[in-house]
Specification:
Chain lengths: 318, 364
């Protein structure tokens, strides 16, 4: 019996099996290119930036990258008034801009939905603001709100509403208003288009049933249309909250975070810290703190989204 | 008193006219069924009564009010839709109570009305579920419950059973009839299924191409069809129609020079040489000797059977009659082989003659 086994172990098939065992599993080999690319473009930069947030890394002095200072950057941020006011201002900016965009987007979508002739054309025109680069939108509104030659002041003066040249981009509150105005102008159509898609998806029957059941137009909207639109609204809010939370270009062009930091948002502060002051370690730490903001908003809206979906009976919670 | 009156009601979509001047009077408490093939304008007519479609011309009144310019919510009607049209984000209880809540009724009253409707339709167990958790039949019952709760003057049903399977459809048909006997309201019911129309209706309105073809009780439509369309649409299997020519000897010559006498009822209406269609139902062409009571004048025929459809209490026989396939009915059936020649009796008094030119029945 033992002799027979020894003979078996030396058959060629067995050797072949042995080499098979040493090879990597096929699924791993097939996925390897994806793994490598993911690591190169996402994982390594992520780990590197996380590491650098624990160092006093300055772009001008590369050697600082190797000095570990623990959580000192984070401690500095936690007590930094400038950071927290930018953080708070970003939340304010986000809240006002998103609410306005939602409101206007909803109104526009409801109106466009009523249009029967040329609706396609209107839908296309509606998306024009989305097609411009935010940088260009920033320049455009910087011109419009210029206190000497801008359209806004010219119009106000020509209509006799105001004599004074309003300092649109200099006064802290007005500057914030101007930036929000530009942001809303550019991105309301995101809401309009998504909500319009939601309106198209509403079945006709419940709307008609509501009419027969005695609903006025407002009641139909409140009790039937709006619940159907909620999933679409939350999708739009999720996408836009991520978008607005990283607002940088429009602000940078229009005010550069100024005057004197009165329109400073997280990302303008971060880029100034990282690239102008060259304190990349600190900037990365700020990035990691502010990412919490985005995550919090995303989780919040996503929960709302799945609640709205399950309320309509669209499958289970996501 | 809730009569519904349609006076020359027209519906136009742009240049296309879908409903051409419909005149109709539906009595208080009547179960009126609008039936016809798809695209005949029956649903459009119903939707005009509901106020979901504008009325292009003519006048609709519910009770003593002309409702042409009233929005649906002021017409005091309830509608049950083909796709149930439940509110997916509300529970059954909320769905049922919605109309009263919108009308700002006191909570206690809503509760009572909802409970009552749920009792009538056996929905008590389902009150906290959402529509997505209900079966088709349950959804349809909720839709009917929602209609009852509103306590409307008129119920409108738009093909409410078309989305249910055959067995459930039969069951719900009975429930709808019971519901009508219980609440006694005027009901206007649209369907394309003639069986539903026959079984449910007090009166049937048969429509085609935006016109009313015939209005009458189910038996009137069945026994005295106004034209060949009525004859073939109402009743299953459809009436057999055979082309023929009237001769002066009070007979009709069919193809293959087979002749049949003219039924007594049609004698005064035909002229010699007129092209006609001779019609009879399968029930009136019976194999001889199957313990069937035969009435009136009988015509003896020998027909060759090509196909049989046994249904249990009866068997449908497809036979060759003057070169055309006709259906006959064998009660107390025995097995029949294809190709077998059988002696039949045709009950002449129940046969019909239609004008071949316009399809109209020729009858005194």
């Amino acid at each position: 019996m033992a002799k027979h086994l020894r003979v078996f172990r030396h058959t060629p098939e067995h050797r072949k099996k042995g080499t098979m065992r040493r090879r990597l599993p096929e699924w791993f080999v097939l996925l390897l290119p994806a793994f490598i690319i993911m690591a190169a473009v996402v994982l390594i930069p992520l780990v590197f930036s996380l590491y650098s947030s624990f160092t006093p890394y300055k772009l001008t002095r590369p050697s600082t990258l190797w000095r570990w200072i623990g959580t000192s950057n984070y401690e500095k941020i936690l007590t930094d008034v400038k950071f927290w006011s930018a953080f708070g201002r970003t939340i304010l900016f986000l809240t006002i801009a998103l609410n306005l965009e939602l409101l206007f987007g909803l109104l526009i979508a409801l109106m466009v939905n009523k249009v029967t002739l040329g609706q396609r054309t209107i839908r296309t025109i509606l998306m024009f603001p989305m097609m411009f680069s935010p940088i260009l939108v920033g320049f455009q509104f910087k011109f419009i709100f210029n206190d000497n030659i801008g359209l806004a002041n010219n119009a106000l003066q020509a209509l006799g509403i105001s004599d004074a040249a309003l300092p649109w981009l200099v006064d802290g509150k007005l500057a914030m208003f101007s930036i929000i105005f530009a942001e809303v102008w550019m991105s309301t159509s995101v809401f309009a288009v998504l909500i319009l898609a939601g309106l198209f998806a509403i079945p006709r029957d419940p709307l008609e049933a509501a009419k027969v059941d005695g609903c006025t137009a407002w009641q139909t909207f409140r009790h039937i249309t709006l619940p159907f639109l909620m999933p679409f609204i939350f999708i739009a809010l999720t996408i836009r909250s991520l978008d607005v939370a990283r607002a940088y270009d429009i602000v940078q062009i229009m005010t550069g975070g100024g005057p004197a930091g009165r329109t400073e948002l997280i990302w303008t502060l971060m880029s100034r810290t990282g690239y102008v002051d060259a304190r990349m370690g600190l900037a990365n730490a700020m990035g990691y703190v502010s990412i919490l903001l985005s995550i919090a908003f995303t989780i919040y809206f996503f929960k709302k989204l799945s609640a709205a979906r399950s309320e309509l009976g669209f499958g289970d919670k996501i | 008193m809730t009569e519904v009156t349609l006076n020359g009601v027209v519906k136009r979509y742009g240049k296309h006219e879908a409903v051409h001047g419909v005149d109709l009077k539906i009595h208080d408490g009547e179960f009126m069924v609008l039936v016809g093939p798809s695209g005949c304008g029956k649903s459009t007519t119903l939707r005009m009564i509901a106020g979901l479609e504008d009325i292009s011309d003519g006048e609709i009144s519910i009770g003593s009010r002309v409702v042409n310019d009233l929005p649906p919510r002021e017409r005091n009607i309830s509608m049950v839709f083909q796709n149930y049209a439940l509110y997916p984000h509300m529970t059954v209880r909320e769905n049922l109570g919605f109309t009263l809540r919108i009308a700002k009724q006191p909570e206690a009253e809503i509760e009572t009305a909802v409970k009552k409707a749920a009792g009538i339709l056996g929905l008590d167990e389902l009150m906290e579920r959402r529509p997505s958790e209900l079966s088709g039949g349950e959804r349809q019952r909720v839709a009917m419950g929602r209609a009852i709760v509103r306590r409307p003057d008129v119920f409108l049903f738009d093909e409410p059973l078309s989305n249910l399977d055959a067995k459930l459809r039969t069951q719900m048909r009975v429930e709808i009839k019971k519901l009508h006997q219980r609440v006694g309201n005027t009901i206007i019911y649209v369907t394309h299924d003639q069986v539903e129309a026959m079984t449910l209706a007090d009166r049937i309105v048969l429509m085609r191409d935006g016109h009313i073809v015939q209005v009458g009780t189910p038996l009137e439509l069945f026994n005295n069809p106004f034209n060949t369309f009525s004859a073939t649409f109402i009743g299953s299997p459809p009436m057999n129609l055979i082309d023929g020519v009237v001769t002066d000897a009070d007979t009709i010559v069919l193809r293959n020079s087979l002749t049949v006498p003219i039924p007594a009822a049609a004698c005064g209406q035909v002229v010699s040489g007129q092209l006609v269609q001779f019609g009879f139902r399968a029930d009136n062409l019976m194999p001889v000797g199957h313990a069937v009571e035969e009435t009136g004048k009988l015509v003896d025929l020998e027909l060759s059977v090509s196909l049989t459809e046994p249904l249990g209490t009866e068997t449908l026989l497809f036979a060759d009659f003057a070169g055309q396939e006709v259906q006959a009915k064998m009660l107390n059936p025995r097995p029949v082989k294809p190709g077998e020649t059988i002696a039949f009796h045709l009950m002449l008094d129940k046969c019909h003659v239609f004008d071949a030119a316009n399809g109209k029945a020729l009858r005194d």
